[in-house]
Specification:
Length: 125
């Protein structure tokens, strides 16, 4: 016959397991126009609007002026985040961009006059 301690521990374990099973998960944002899963995209307009300027599954380098980016990558060891490099008013900047749905920023808006020069797939930020 189980003791009170055994019953209490069993109830505690079942409650903890139920909490794990029912815990909410982050849901991915809908794909922006022209940028399906597994791609990184650069757009001419803010908020992933306007012309799609870059759409790539691989690391990219070049020179394109745009206003927003979206990392629609999928979880993949050492290659699901983007190291983004851009220039603005003569200075060079870079930031690691997570994949949709995060945690962390997976889409960014920029000031007019930003020129993107490199997007490199990498591991965790």
């Amino acid at each position: 016959m189980p003791t009170r301690l055994t019953l209490a521990l069993s109830l505690l374990a079942a409650t903890a397991l139920t909490g794990l099973v029912l815990a909410p998960t982050a849901s991915a944002e809908a794909d922006p126009p022209g940028c399906p899963k597994e791609y990184f995209c650069i757009y001419a307009g803010e908020g992933q609007t306007g012309q799609l300027l870059v759409k790539t599954q691989h690391s990219w380098s070049g020179s394109v002026s745009g206003r927003s980016v979206f990392n629609n990558g999928i979880p993949y060891p050492d290659a699901d985040h983007i190291q983004l490099v851009w220039t603005y008013q003569g200075n060079t900047y870079e930031q690691c961009v997570h994949y949709n749905p995060g945690p962390g920023e997976y889409k960014l808006d920029f000031y007019e006059g930003v020129t993107f020069t490199r997007a490199t797939w990498r591991g965790e930020c």
